[in-house]
Task: inverse folding
């Protein structure tokens, strides 16, 4: 795509086009009665009032140059792998532990690594041109660009928070607090802080609206929280399969800058 070609935004919403030719109605003073003229002026006054009300009563406009349509989804090359299923979460208490709730060990580390260690992807220039944000070309791999699905970054971050919770086993991830500042752990502290912030935003963005319930427990004689409810989920193994198929296998050199002709639209402030 050349620089002078227009980049068509995913969320563009073409506005209704007007004809451009106004309807010209010529009325002569002698051809209408006084009553008709009064009616015409009244109608114009009402129309003008409605127009002014609509103009000043509408919601403030943002500076976004492309209107947002919430029914559309931002492009991802992995959308082809999206498939939904119903799942029930492990509550994580009593007899309902998940397989990840075991003590820190090489086996647990491998389980976590297997969730996302293929998370950096290699996509085509065609796919890169459809992204809402520009990404960089891969040096030495003409026509391909580097990318990563956010789900794998989320899992990476959650794993680092998990490691920070067990500093005796993972001393490199012992974080500092206001009451326990450890200068040598500055990078770990900043990394975990970033991860907590990122995960908070991701959870809020996803906003799972599955409904948690309370049910009556006759043994306790009270209604109790029940977390083992159904959720509509994207099949994780399908996303994993896509990522493994598109995994970046060569070493990426971030010091090499490659100019290209991809132009991305602005979707937000």
Result:
């Amino acid at each position: 795509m050349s620089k002078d070609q227009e980049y068509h935004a995913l969320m563009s919403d073409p506005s209704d086009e007007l004809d451009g030719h106004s309807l010209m109605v010529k009325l002569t003073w002698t051809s209408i009665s006084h009553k008709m003229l009064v009616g015409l002026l009244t109608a114009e006054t009402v129309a003008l009032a409605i127009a002014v009300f609509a103009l000043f009563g509408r919601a403030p406009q943002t500076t976004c140059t492309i209107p947002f349509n919430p029914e559309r989804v931002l492009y991802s090359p992995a959308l082809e792998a999206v498939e939904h299923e119903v799942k029930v979460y492990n509550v994580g208490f009593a007899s309902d532990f998940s397989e990840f709730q075991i003590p820190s060990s090489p086996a647990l580390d491998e389980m976590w690594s297997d969730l996302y260690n293929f998370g950096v992807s290699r996509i085509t220039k065609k796919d890169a041109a459809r992204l809402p944000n520009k990404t960089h070309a891969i040096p030495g791999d003409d026509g391909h660009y580097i990318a990563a699905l956010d789900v794998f970054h989320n899992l990476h971050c959650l794993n680092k928070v998990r490691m920070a919770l067990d500093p005796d086993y993972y001393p490199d991830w012992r974080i500092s607090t206001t009451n326990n500042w450890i200068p040598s752990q500055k990078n770990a502290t900043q990394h975990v802080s970033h991860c907590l912030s990122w995960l908070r935003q991701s959870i809020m963005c996803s906003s799972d609206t599955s409904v948690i319930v309370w049910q009556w427990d006759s043994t306790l004689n009270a209604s109790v929280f029940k977390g083992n409810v159904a959720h509509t989920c994207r099949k994780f193994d399908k996303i994993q399969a896509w990522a493994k198929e598109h995994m970046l296998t060569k070493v990426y050199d971030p010091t090499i800058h490659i100019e290209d002709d991809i132009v991305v639209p602005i979707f937000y402030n």
